[in-house]
Amino acid sequence: MKPVLASALALASLVSAGLAAAWAPSGDALRTLGSGGAYSDVSSGADGAGLIHAAIDVPVPPKVVWTVMNDCRVIQRLITSAVSCRVVQGDAEHTGWDIRETVTKGNLFIPSIHNIYRSDYQPYSLIRFRKAGGDLKVEQGQWQLISLNNGTATRVLYENLVAADIMLPAGLVREGMRKDTAKVLMNLKRESMVYPR
Q: Are 120 and 96 contacting, i.e. CB atoms less than 8 angstroms apart?
């Protein structure tokens, strides 16, 4: 799991990547956001993949959230299993895209994952990402940052179709993804609120 958060991350075209039209929170998701929490749901995708939809409201401007998401120095505070993060090609600020490599440590049930993904950026509102190598079988999705309260807050929306070789029942894997995604989003909220401006 990443965030950085995730990451941050990338996708050349949401439609060509096979995801449906952009997701928007409603019902339970909006109630969770209204209470200050992170909403996360994982449904079954094709070929055993999990389709993650998640969201959180962060009481800082989109540019701050964006900066935190894309700062490799912060990744271990966002994704606690992260070992490393580095940009191997491109430059988000100057070329509008990059390729990043992240490594997360595993445990008794989940293997360590070496992930390489390309991100395409539209500052400070959209990061589309897709698999460019590494251990994951499938990864494609996006981060969307929506300005709230006259630019003083941000709604973060996350979508990811992801699959990995994990020898556990699919239901347990999806539940793990759901919990991990919510934790990453809460970490993103915390780090965004203390990040130097």
A: yes
Which segments of 104-143 does DSSP mark as H helices, in order?
A: none
What letter would DSSP give residue 6? B
Our count of domains for the chain comes to 1
* Amino acid sitting at position 12: A
Q: What is the pLDDT of residues 106-115, one digit of tens each?
A: 887 788 999 9
Residues 164 and 169: their CA atoms lie apart, in Å, by: 12
Burial class, 189, CB count within 10 angstroms (exposed 0-12 / middle 13-18 / buried 19+): buried
* Whether residue 133 has pLDDT greater than 70: yes
Predicted confidence (pLDDT) per residue in 58-72, tens digit: 999 999 999 999 999
Residue 2 in this model has a pLDDT that exceeds 50: no
Q: Is there a domain that residue 26 lies in?
A: yes
CATH number (domain holding residue 48): 3.30.530.20
Is residue 61 in some structural domain?
A: yes
Domain extent, residue 159, equals: 14-194
